[in-house]
Amino acid sequence: MTADAVRSEVLRPRSLSRARRPTVRASRFVLYAALLVMAAFYLTPVYVLLVTGLKGFDEVSLERMWDFPQGLSLTGFADAFDKLAPNLANSFRLVIPATLISAAIGSLNGYILAKWRFRGSEVLFPLILFGMFIPYQAILIPLLQVTRGLGVAGSIEGLILVHVVYGIPITTLIFRNYYAAIPNELIEAARVDGADFVRIYRDVLLPLSISGFVVVLIWQFTSIWNDFLFAVTLTEQSNWPVTVALNNLAGSFSVEWNVQMAGALLAALPTLLVFVFLGRYFVRGLLAGSLKG
Amino acid sequence: MLIAPSILAVGVFVYGLIGWTAFVSTTNWNDLLPDYSSAGLANFASIFDNPRFQIDLRNTTVFTVCFVAAALVLGLVLANLIDRRIRAEGFFRSVFLFPMAISFIVTGVVWKWLLTPSSGFNSLFHLDPTTNRWFTDETVIHLGSDSPVGRWLGDIGLGFLTSTNFGVPVAMLSIVLAAVWQMSGFVMALYLAGLRAIPDELREAARVDGATELRVFRHVVLPLLTPVTISAVIILGHISLKIYDLTVAMSPIGPGFGTDVPANFMWTTAFNDNQFARGAAVAVVMLVLIAIVIVPYLIWTGRREIER
Amino acid sequence: MTRTTVRARFALLGAIAIALSACSSSASPGASSGTGAAKVEIFSWWTAGGEATGLNKLIDQFNSKNPQWQVVNQAVAGGAGSNAKAVLKTRVLDNKPPDLFQSHMGHELTDTWLQYIEPLDDLYAKNSWNDKFPKGVMDIISDGGHIWAVPVNIHRANVLWYNKKVFSANGIKPPTTWDEFRTVADKLRGKGIIPLALGGKDNFEAGQVLETILIGTLGADKYKGLWTGTTNWAGADVTKALTTFKTVLGYVNPDHSALTWDQANDLVISGKAAMTIMGDWVDGYNASKNFTDYGWALAPGNKDIYDALSDVFALPKGAKNADAAKSFLTLLGSPEGQDIFNPNKGSVPARLDAGKPAADQKQYDDYLKSAQADWKADTIVPSLEHGAAAKPSWATAYNQAVTLFMTSGNVAAAQTALVKACKDAGICK
């Protein structure tokens, strides 16, 4: 059975095999009530973001946060978009290549560590993994010096490099676990057929990795998009991604909350869309062995 | 070998820079001008002597334990709700999962609004703001030194356990709530994946043996979910030990440092007060804390790997 | 899973991304028009509101007169400048300083930056500025016989703001002593009104209230002595100030640690609270909220004392365009420059001879006019919370003592911590 077959087997929603009892209807009601209450809980913050973003600044206050805006004011969104537009573009220029590169590297590393064991590889893997756990504030100053030494300080390229490097542990982990679930027999068979390292990767593993890639791409896209710390210290103003610019919508002594909230929604839109459109594949990808340790 | 560049990069950017930080933590660089003369362990003595850092260590422990536990439980509950052939499964899954797409900064700002006592949930549900104080509550739940247990601890020389430094700051629980909102959907996704990987036949077999639904869950499903739980604990645990953006946006200091965390202390010490060596010492302590959680896990996975 | 749907979804997302970046890049202002002018970087934390407007007006004026240079405002916001300070420090430590940077007048600048910035004695001599700023300011921006920065503006930290309607409805007047404060506050509390609105989220608000109590209890000279080692932190008057502070804290909103200063001020605007003690950036904030029914007085006991903070600009060593930076500093220090910036920022000019903006510029409002008169007449003392009185690590230690005091209420412990803070700062023996 191939990995894909395993997956489609388990993907099938479970059949409710119990005989329907009279209590079923009541328990269904409780089930949906619980789901709706939870959904309301998860959506409340979005409501606050949205109504605040639609208010004029003089209307914004903590005390009236639940009220609908009196008359739709789009100034918050318009202001925010005006100010954030160039940085949204920067974010895409940063996130797309960084995500793709780190997924590619992670896939390659995962392949090697899962299927081409070499002396010390089982020591190497935990050593790489440890990298995802360090608090980044601790390494900011020397990091800046290293990027300077490499001649990429201040640029989007430099930030891409940093995100790719610090993305190595998590992407390697996801792909390695993912590939570990693929039966060795499959690799062996290909090898017997005369396939080499590259061809096994290209012809056997890559076609099976789509859901692995989805998980890694979503994960990296989200975390790189939302990063603030690296972005604010490592890039120049013209290269700031949207998180830094969003932060800059605030003044030193007061914050225009309507613009801030509208900006937060705009800045969150791409990652939200990714989750809405690809969320189900994220769940499937997780299911397919990745992140299970 | 194709993996060599990755090894080099991780070697330099992770281990090289950790080494540098560890080195700085033993120097006298406590002014903007770098000073690499040796200070021994003086910086560590200084931070452990600081009441704020003691409070921070308490806070980060409380936060980690509560956040990981709550996110696991809620994630498991949500996964079980969803895994019942419901209508609009995709909708509910997206609703529970989307907070993960939002940055901690935005989460912090919104939840600060929602939990501000004079407004937010209190005004929505007509709760009394003087008793529902959320993250402005300076109460620290701790063992009283004159309670029976406290007296007993005092008798056996463990009286220090009754200080507020070993209590639970109520304010921190509000931060936990926000963090759980953000990350429980991810845990749900993990558990959902785990649940769907359990073949129906296993449950059926148990049911045929006369087990109640609860027993089936407890004795069949939960054990099979153990690997998922471990992964979730590791991912959530390292997020919570590093937590910074969320508390800074929501309540950087809190009442009596009730929501302060080591990462915030480190940032202030190094970048506001220019005490870079002391800041590095805080970072080293954070790393050690994280290592205590992570290294056993890494060794455990490594062992399992070899057994395979 | 069906691969086509995945691909379709990716394609759709990709299309959205491209569309977004396309329309956003077309919306970006044509900032660098490729004139080949040398870029001059000014590093500040002014990114929004009146302060950004003021600075941008200055920059526009400078750029139009000096086509060979293009000044850009490289600003990082957040946490009253804390992000900006961190970014600035990493850049300077990395030998890649901007051409000019913003700091606060006083020890935040002189105790931190002296090895990294150029003295400006020549600039002051060339423009004959030495007698144009008050002596109190010249003292604070000088160290070791050199002048280190150009002050752009002055803010006042010891102002009591109140809701006029609430005051007249209750027949009360702004208190001038802390005893009067108590009487007024009791009366307000009896009516269910929060006497004093307080913020606390950013960890300077309560410390600033204690600062004004110290000024009110010790007087200008002894207060200044606290920061130079001539006034004893263990003294009885500091004990008295802490006791007063404890009393005052009994009259504030219980959720102070959640609120930023402006959200605390919103309580005054709505009439839920009667007063707040805060810097004079409240004036501009009230205007932006269309709130006009407010009055101002000095914090109790602070008569004739100007608790000052100032934004200054300094010239880092190794700046790429030092000539341009100096030329921009000349504009910042001129009466013309100060009168373009300050009405927008909502602060008063540091220069004594400024105060008359050109007719086509924004004018000073009533509060600012009164503050300007005080600025020329009052005794100037440095604000602790905004970098003027002590170095940052001392301010942090002071704030730590305040934060712990607010929950413990332990006067003796707080005083011990304040004594230790002074010793750790190397000022007290």
Description of the structure:
- The complex is a heterotrimer of chains A (293), B (308) and C (429).
- Chain A has 293 residues and is mostly helical.
- Chain A has helices spanning 3-11, 23-53, 75-115, 121-130, 140-149, 156-180, 184-192, 197-208, 210-226, 229-234, 242-247, 257-287.
- Chain A has a domain at 83-250 and 266-287: Orthogonal Bundle (MetI-like fold).
- Chain B contains 14 helices and two strands.
- Chain B is globular, with a radius of gyration of 23 Å.
- The relative contact order of chain B is 0.15.
- Chain C has two domains: 38-155 and 310-371, 3-Layer(aba) Sandwich (D-Maltodextrin-Binding Protein, domain 2); 159-301 and 391-424, 3-Layer(aba) Sandwich (D-Maltodextrin-Binding Protein, domain 2).
- Helices cover 50% and strands 15% of the residues of chain C.
- Chain C contains 17 helices and 15 strands.
- A five-stranded mixed beta sheet of chain C has the order 2-1-3-13-6, with helices on both faces. In chain C, strands 14-7-12-15 form a four-stranded mixed beta sheet, with helices on both faces. Chain C has a four-stranded mixed beta sheet with strand order 9-10-8-11.
- In chain C, α9 runs antiparallel to α10 and α10 packs across α17 (411-424).
- The chains are: A mainly alpha (293), B mainly alpha (308), C alpha/beta (429).
- At the A-B interface, α2, α3, α4, α5 and α6 of A face α1, α3, α4, α5 and α6 of B.
